[in-house]
């Protein structure tokens, strides 16, 4: 079974904001304070509900956004120049930070591609006889040189084991978990509360079950229903459209 | 023997340690330009010869023989161990910020990312991708970081100039304007705040 | 890609240990005779091509790429030139393996590196970075090696605990949580958008 794990994590409040700007198709140069603040808080609340550790940075940003939003909601009966500037500054500063961060986030994607390409190239160990050591003088190397050499070594391949299908444990478990979930849903005959599909609160079990549910959704084996944002999720066997 | 033959032998023996044009010129007793010229021709020929499985690559100052990208699946099929773990998103972002701004302090990286960055920095250092580059002036004299030669190797870059360009266009213009006004404001700020 | 190209890649990456025709036939998905036949033709061609610096040799069941005999003096010359680096890649790799696995025998180091390691060990011992630490149990009672105080000094470490951890374990756990949340968000998005 091929299951590509897409790691779609947020790397902090700026990353989350960029995600929202992207999702809501907002112009980064003209961010609507109210909308972005509401959406941002919704996410942070969800994170709290999921009892994920929220880094303090997320909360600091929440406070900044709320301040920005409340100022933007103030009736604009020619406030003093000072107040006006302050509001502009918060918005501007945030915009600049987002643009700056976005630049590096994009660069990180390019680096990731280069890293991936690099894993397709192999060399061989230097011959044992090569490179006469300098016996005298200071040892002009740092711990980083040693770590770098070690990494270089890990990129080399020791070839020997004949090809064999290696099945990774988690892939196996997702598959088994999918079968188990289908049985549970089938036996229940009525929609099952989303949370009830998670048997334990072990991190690994949560992740595997979750991946299994998503895979089943993708395969149109199950349907997840929800009445509205942040209402209870129910899961039922059978796809949304029955083509078969 | 031809220079090509000897260079292939030398590069083969050097493996992933690689060799500089100077080292090869020294052994061949020819000048560096000759070596560079011969290698360029060889690299080109290897690349286009579909009977060849290796090419010559450059990173930093070093030339190396490396297997062709297209053959990777066959090598991986015989490999004992899976490829080393790739870097996390946090580590890649941190690395990008360091690579484009080096030397740079952790605080500066955190300012751009908006989150704590101790762990990604430790990971990058343990991978030999970044190293300390002295200390910055000012309060606490924080450690400065820069990328290593291993960084060039790990991302197949000849040198830092080969880093993919940061997104430009609109942003660039914007930044130039910001820079201008920033400086202007700073200057103003300095005078008014004092 | 041609079989020739893939075989060259495989033999190159396999290094000094070489590969059997069976192993190559397996990944190429052809029969062993075909591989043997192709390799014989390649070996012949390499030998007579005076632009090539390597040939294919057979050693027992294993095929290996080797530098041509005639070029040995040039490799020797390279080996005798002092390297611009004070420690070679081979020595640094060996040092890392010893530092993180001490006490450890030469055989164990060679097992990890996949190549002979006599010289790097001699170099490291000569520079006082490693020393003998008794002998291992078992056949031949091979010498064990460990790092020295000079090693700590040279790399500015207070003690061995200060060696940076090599694993990215902690980062991995973080990613799982992120993954979970990311998926959750995606699922939410899909349901609400419908």
TrEMBL record, chain A:
<dbReference type="Pfam" id="PF02616">
    <property type="entry name" value="SMC_ScpA"/>
</dbReference>
<keyword id="KW-0963">Cytoplasm</keyword>
<dbReference type="GO" id="GO:0005737">
    <property type="term" value="C:cytoplasm"/>
</dbReference>
<protein>
    <recommendedName>
        <fullName>Segregation and condensation protein A</fullName>
    </recommendedName>
</protein>
<dbReference type="InterPro" id="IPR023093">
    <property type="entry name" value="ScpA-like_C"/>
</dbReference>
<comment type="similarity">
    <text>Belongs to the ScpA family.</text>
</comment>
<dbReference type="GO" id="GO:0006260">
    <property type="term" value="P:DNA replication"/>
</dbReference>
<keyword id="KW-0159">Chromosome partition</keyword>
<comment type="subunit">
    <text>Component of a cohesin-like complex composed of ScpA, ScpB and the Smc homodimer, in which ScpA and ScpB bind to the head domain of Smc. The presence of the three proteins is required for the association of the complex with DNA.</text>
</comment>
<comment type="function">
    <text>Participates in chromosomal partition during cell division. May act via the formation of a condensin-like complex containing Smc and ScpB that pull DNA away from mid-cell into both cell halves.</text>
</comment>
<dbReference type="GO" id="GO:0051301">
    <property type="term" value="P:cell division"/>
</dbReference>
<keyword id="KW-0131">Cell cycle</keyword>
<dbReference type="InterPro" id="IPR003768">
    <property type="entry name" value="ScpA"/>
</dbReference>
<keyword id="KW-0132">Cell division</keyword>
<dbReference type="GO" id="GO:0007059">
    <property type="term" value="P:chromosome segregation"/>
</dbReference>
Automatic annotation (TrEMBL), chains B, C:
<dbReference type="Pfam" id="PF04079">
    <property type="entry name" value="SMC_ScpB"/>
</dbReference>
<comment type="subunit">
    <text>Homodimer. Homodimerization may be required to stabilize the binding of ScpA to the Smc head domains. Component of a cohesin-like complex composed of ScpA, ScpB and the Smc homodimer, in which ScpA and ScpB bind to the head domain of Smc. The presence of the three proteins is required for the association of the complex with DNA.</text>
</comment>
<comment type="function">
    <text>Participates in chromosomal partition during cell division. May act via the formation of a condensin-like complex containing Smc and ScpA that pull DNA away from mid-cell into both cell halves.</text>
</comment>
<dbReference type="GO" id="GO:0051304">
    <property type="term" value="P:chromosome separation"/>
</dbReference>
<protein>
    <recommendedName>
        <fullName>Segregation and condensation protein B</fullName>
    </recommendedName>
</protein>
<dbReference type="GO" id="GO:0005737">
    <property type="term" value="C:cytoplasm"/>
</dbReference>
<keyword id="KW-0159">Chromosome partition</keyword>
<keyword id="KW-0131">Cell cycle</keyword>
<dbReference type="InterPro" id="IPR005234">
    <property type="entry name" value="ScpB_csome_segregation"/>
</dbReference>
<keyword id="KW-0132">Cell division</keyword>
<dbReference type="GO" id="GO:0051301">
    <property type="term" value="P:cell division"/>
</dbReference>
<dbReference type="GO" id="GO:0006260">
    <property type="term" value="P:DNA replication"/>
</dbReference>
<dbReference type="InterPro" id="IPR036390">
    <property type="entry name" value="WH_DNA-bd_sf"/>
</dbReference>
<dbReference type="InterPro" id="IPR036388">
    <property type="entry name" value="WH-like_DNA-bd_sf"/>
</dbReference>
<comment type="similarity">
    <text>Belongs to the ScpB family.</text>
</comment>
<keyword id="KW-0963">Cytoplasm</keyword>
């Amino acid at each position: 079974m091929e299951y590509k794990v897409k790691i779609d994590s947020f790397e902090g409040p700026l990353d989350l904001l960029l995600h929202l700007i992207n999702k809501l198709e907002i112009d980064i140069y003209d961010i609507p304070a109210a909308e972005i603040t509401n959406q941002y808080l919704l996410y942070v609340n969800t994170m709290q509900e999921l009892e994920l550790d929220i880094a303090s940075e997320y909360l600091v940003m929440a406070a900044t956004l709320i301040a920005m939003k409340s100022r933007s909601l103030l009736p604009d009966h020619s406030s003093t120049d000072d107040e006006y500037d302050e509001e502009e500054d918060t918005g501007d500063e945030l915009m600049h930070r987002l643009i700056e961060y976005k630049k590096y986030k994009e660069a990180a994607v390019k680096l990731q591609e280069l890293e991936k390409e690099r894993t397709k190239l192999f060399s061989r160990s230097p011959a044992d006889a090569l490179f006469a050591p300098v016996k005298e003088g200071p040892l002009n190397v740092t711990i980083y040189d040693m770590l770098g050499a070690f990494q270089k070594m890990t990129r080399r391949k020791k070839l020997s084991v004949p090809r064999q299908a290696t099945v990774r444990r988690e892939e196996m478990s997702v598959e088994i978990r999918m079968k188990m979930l289908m049985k549970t849903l089938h036996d229940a005959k009525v929609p099952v509360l989303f949370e009830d599909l998670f048997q334990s609160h072990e991190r690994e079990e949560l992740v595997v079950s979750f991946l299994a549910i998503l895979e089943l959704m993708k395969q149109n084996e199950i349907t997840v229903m929800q009445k509205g944002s942040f209402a209870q999720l129910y899961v039922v066997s059978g796809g949304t459209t029955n083509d078969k | 023997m031809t220079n090509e033959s000897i260079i292939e032998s030398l590069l083969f023996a050097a493996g992933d340690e690689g060799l500089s044009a100077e080292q090869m010129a020294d052994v061949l007793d020819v000048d560096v330009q000759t070596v560079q010229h011969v290698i360029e021709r060889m690299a080109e020929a290897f690349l286009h010869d579909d009977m060849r499985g290796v090419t010559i690559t450059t990173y930093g100052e070093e030339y190396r023989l490396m297997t062709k990208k297209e053959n990777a699946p066959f090598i991986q099929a015989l490999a004992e161990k899976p490829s080393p773990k790739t870097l996390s998103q946090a580590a890649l972002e941190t690395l990008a910020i360091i690579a484009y701004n080096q030397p740079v302090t952790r605080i500066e990286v955190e300012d751009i990312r908006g989150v704590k960055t101790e762990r990604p920095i430790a990971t990058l250092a343990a991978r030999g991708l970044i190293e300390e580059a002295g200390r910055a002036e000012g309060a606490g004299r924080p450690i400065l970081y820069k990328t290593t030669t291993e960084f060039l190797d790990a991302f197949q870059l000849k040198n830092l100039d080969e880093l993919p360009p940061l997104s430009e266009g609109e942003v660039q213009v914007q930044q130039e304007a910001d820079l201008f006004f920033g400086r202007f404001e700073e200057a103003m700020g300095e005078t008014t705040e004092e």
